[in-house]
Write a structure and sequence with these properties.
Layout (H helix, E strand, L loop, with lengths): L2 H31 L5 E13 L4 E6 L6 E2 L4 E6 L1 H26 L3 H34 L4 H30 L3 H26 L2 E3 L4 E6 L6 E2 L4 E18 L11 E6 L4 E12 L19 E8 L11 E4 L1
Helix pairs in contact: 2-5, 3-4
Length: 327
């Protein structure tokens, strides 16, 4: 083999290798470039926690996880003997206050009124006698047969009996009129206070029966029958299935076309189909969230945004936790 032929073979080998590398690079570029970036999110649902204002022991749990409940359905029943004892105290206080108000409104008893009337009549009779005695003594004094000392004594006795008669009349009027207006108002206020205490305890008693405030699905039940739960301790979680949305973490360079009020298609692997969703919430996740630094390449940092969107139409079978894919 000549040197020229060997040289041509080496040149052909180099050219062939370079062509193969170029073809592989070309195919790889287009094959990889056609795959779109994927944004994955998941379905979320609103939940509310069922809890009691009063501590107690779980007597009965009427539902189980997965049950669908409607507004007003009984969920759990608690036993709170302390609340029942407070109700007895509050009712006794209300009865006592009502009796005090009744007494203030009715005034003195009939026997007391009658006794005051008799004392007034007695005082009037004494005044009448004292007045006549004074008049007789005054005439005798005017005739000169009675000393001034006797006349003054008769006059003083007359005035004393007059004051006594007025005092007896006042006592009679007070007994007849009953309690003062201020005393009646105070008694009525005590009744109102006692009724407020009864209403407060009633609200605690109602808390021993937990009912559904919104319709939804029981997602979690925490205590068992017989266990003690404290004030505000969670008893169960209810998922409001009518209020579902999708949550996505989207890098800001992928936000093109994602604006509040805009719609987009999301693929649901569970159904092997796409659904249309509408953006209603966008917010940056702050410096503590996922952050892609590109300053080393002479560019800029990319923040991650939390995007929330709701299905435009109701999707039967959509469940919390299902994946949502955006290409």
């Amino acid at each position: 083999m000549s040197a020229k032929t060997q040289h041509n073979n080496i040149l052909l080998a180099i050219v062939g290798f370079a062509a193969a590398v170029a073809i592989v690079a070309f195919i790889g570029f287009f094959a990889l470039g056609r795959d779109p970036e994927i944004i994955q999110g998941q379905v979320e649902v609103s939940e509310y926690r069922v809890s009691s204002k009063v501590p107690g022991r779980i007597l009965e749990i009427r539902v189980k996880e997965g049950d669908f409940v409607k507004v007003g359905d009984t969920l759990a029943i608690l036993d709170a003997p302390e609340v029942r004892a407070k109700m007895e105290q509050a009712q006794s206080a209300e009865n006592a206050a009502a009796a005090q108000e009744e007494m203030a409104r009715n005034g003195a008893r009939q026997e007391q009124i009658q006794g005051a009337f008799q004392l007034m009549q007695q005082a009037k009779a004494g005044l009448e006698i004292a007045e006549k005695s004074y008049q007789r003594v005054q005439r005798l004094y005017d005739e000169g047969v009675m000393s001034a000392q006797k006349r003054d004594e008769a006059y003083a006795n007359y005035k004393a009996m007059e004051a006594q008669a007025k005092a007896a009349e006042s006592q009679y009027q007070m007994a007849k009129n009953g309690a003062r207006r201020e005393e009646k108002m105070a008694a009525a206020a005590m009744v109102g206070r006692a009724k407020g205490a009864v209403n407060e305890v009633n609200s605690y008693i109602h808390e021993t029966v937990q009912i559904a405030q919104m319709e939804g699905e029981v997602s979690d039940v925490f205590p068992k029958v017989g266990e003690l739960v404290g004030t505000g301790s969670p008893i169960m979680n209810i998922s409001v299935m009518k209020d579902m949305w999708g949550t996505f973490n989207v890098r800001e360079d992928q936000l093109n076309g994602m604006e509040v009020g805009k719609t987009f298609d999301a693929f649901v692997p569970a159904f092997n189909k796409s659904i249309q969703m509408k953006v209603y919430y966008m917010k940056d996740q702050g410096s503590y969230a996922v952050w892609k630094a590109t300053k080393t390449n002479g560019q800029y940092d990319l923040k991650t945004f939390e995007v929330k969107a709701r299905p435009v139409e109701k999707v039967d079978g959509l469940r919390p936790g299902m994946s949502l894919i955006i290409k």
